[in-house]
Structures are given as C-alpha cells and as structure tokens.
Amino acid sequence: MALANSRTYDLILLGATGYTGKLCAEHIATSLPTDLKWAVSGRSHERLASIVENLKCYNAQRVQPNVEVVTLSLDDLRSLAKKTRIILNTVGPYYKYSSPVVQACAENGTHYLDVTGETPWVYEMIQKHHDTAKESGAIIIPEIGLESAPSDLLAWTLATLIRKELSLNTGEVIASVHQVNSQPSGGTLATATGILDHYSLTEFMKSSAPWALSPVTGPKSSKTVPLATKLLGVRKTQHLGTLTTSIAAGPNVAIVQRSWGLLGGPKSYGPHFQYHEYMRVKNSLAGFIIHAAVCLTSLVMAVPPLRWLMQWAAHNIYAPGQGASKEANAKDVFELRAIAEADQDVPNPRMAMAKFRYDGGIYYLTGVFLAEAAMVLLTNDDMTTNLAGLMTPAMLGQPFIDRLRNAGVSLESRIMPQKQ
Q: How many CB atoms lie within 10 A of CB 10?
C-alpha cells in the first residue's frame, strides 16, 4: 500500500518507551502495512533504540521505525509535528505533559490521537485548540482508548442501526461494563490520583457538567434516572441485569455527548438522546457497596493530604511506565453491553442491543485503538478532507469498526423483537 505524502513519516509514536507505548509499537510492527513510514519518539535515544531492536523480532523484513529524540518543549514538538501526518501520543498524565503536543499538532495540520480519560484536560484542549485545528485541517481525537472508544462506538452503532432498520431516532442508551478483568498500569494510577492537583474542584465540575463537551446544547431528558439509582447507585434493567456506578462512566458519557453534538445534535441520534453508563454486579447489595466506595474515594480525593497518601500508595503498586506482565494480560477480558430505546411515545418502544468484547490485554487493546485509528486516517482521504478540529472516536465510523474487527475485537448489534 502506498502512503504517499510530502512529510517524512506517516506516523510517529510519541512515548514509545512507556507501558502502553511499547504495546502500541508491537501492534504496529505486527499488523500495520510493512511499507509504513514511522518513527518512535521520546526523550532517551538509548531506550528508543532498544525498542526498535526488540521490534525486529516481530518482522525483520518490514520498514523499521526511525528514532526521533524530542523534549516536551513547544519548539521541539512543533518540529516533530511538521515531520509526520499523525502523532500517536501515549505520554501521560496528559494534563501534565501533553498540552503542547496538542498545540503543535493543531497549529501544523498534523492529526493527533491519544488515550487519555482526563475530562477536564479534554475540555481545556477543546476550548484552546478546536478552532485552530479546524483552520489547519488537523483531526485531534483524544480518548480513543478504552476510554472512550467502546462506549462511543456502541452508541454510534445503536443509533445508526435504529435509524437504518426502523427509520426512528434514538432515545435512551444504557451501557454496562459487563465484564472486565485487568490491572491498572502505573500511568493510569498516577493520572487518577493526581489530576485534582492540577485542576480546581470548580474546573473539574464545570468540565464534568452534562453536555459540557458538546458543541451544541444537549437535550433535557424525557426520562429521569430512578431516584433509587441516584441515592443508592443501583439500577435494574431487563436485558443488562443489576447495575451500579462505574468509575469510567464520566469520561465516556462526556465523549458520547460530544459525538452527538458533532454529528448534528438533534439531527443525528435524535432530539431526545440520552446516554447512561454503569457496571454490572451480582446483586443490589454489591451494587450499593461499590457505589458507596466510589463516593467515598471521590471525597478522599478532594482532600489534599488524603489524596497525597493515595498517590504514594498508587506509586508503590506500579510506577508510571510499568504494568502487568504479558502473561497476566493474556487473561484480560473486557466486555461492554448496551441497550437502546427508539424514540417512540408508546408503552413498549422498539429496542436494539449491542456488545463490544475483546479477549486479551486491555492495554494492548489501547495500542490497537491508536494504531487502527491512524490507519483509518491514512487511508480515507474523504474523511480527512471533511473533518477537522477536536473530534471523537465515533467520527471515524464504520471504517474504524471494520479495522477493529479485523484486529480481534467483537462488535455485534441487533434489533430486538417487538414486545407484544
């Protein structure tokens, strides 16, 4: 496959020596076209050269990546951005290190992908760089990893299916983390325990408000979340079972809501669209305990001395750049399920169901998301011509889903039988 372009590289993987970066590099070396022009980038030439040497064992015949040593100064990053069509960024915590990376890409028309889950930082990047990226033609997509690609793609899939098969808008979508078996990496722990050192509670709450990331005002729900769910954190559904609060729901809901706005707001998924996300539990008692634990943790994180204690504890589990072994990752499973109601004012509206599943390391899956999204941008000229600005995973649509399926992801959807 020819990937002709005036720039030196098709893509640069920034942060290739980190835990997620190494896994992404492995997927690129084993699964992307052998004539891909790419480079690994970071601060240490020695460590990067070691990565390149290790990659040869996967396919010594392919074009091997070059090494690009870079600091995180804006001038260095501007020079780096001018050399490539796309930067894949795994340097986190993003609020701490990656703002100049986004700026450099937005200014120079360089597409950008990352795997953050930091909603306040994403909100800040939208405010600062969306317009610049639109002018330069850069497609900037944060949160294209486990947060928040599965949620965003399931919502898009369900809304698309309901419109295609039933010619109806979508009302409420309820998603549930049905199964997850994984350990957090050092980078994830550092981000989760450190973000409130950077953003005030006021900034955090502003960016986390309903529809805060959407470019258009979101709809008011025609259905309210049950009072018991608000108080006890437990919700029961016929098709998903007993659900409770999910710690990943906030970033995922925000991205899904932004996709709704970017795709046309009321004209896309529908004027009454709502998205809620939970996690599955065995029973109501377990759900309440988990909900209470999440609330307590949030309170602890808001108190600096207690937060610093949690940071110390997290660092002693895995330091940034570290994570579970490949053998442990092989046992990972991630499954997200969702049901959607068609927007019908009838007692039993039509429904659809979808499932996203991956068996294997979820941090490897994060690398898969980055690499396959990059290939969508490299091989779809119409998309890169018509999109620009701070986008979301759903904006890559069916081409992205097709590539993920080829990489081992299962994503299924169906219209459910009509209730009598």
A: 23
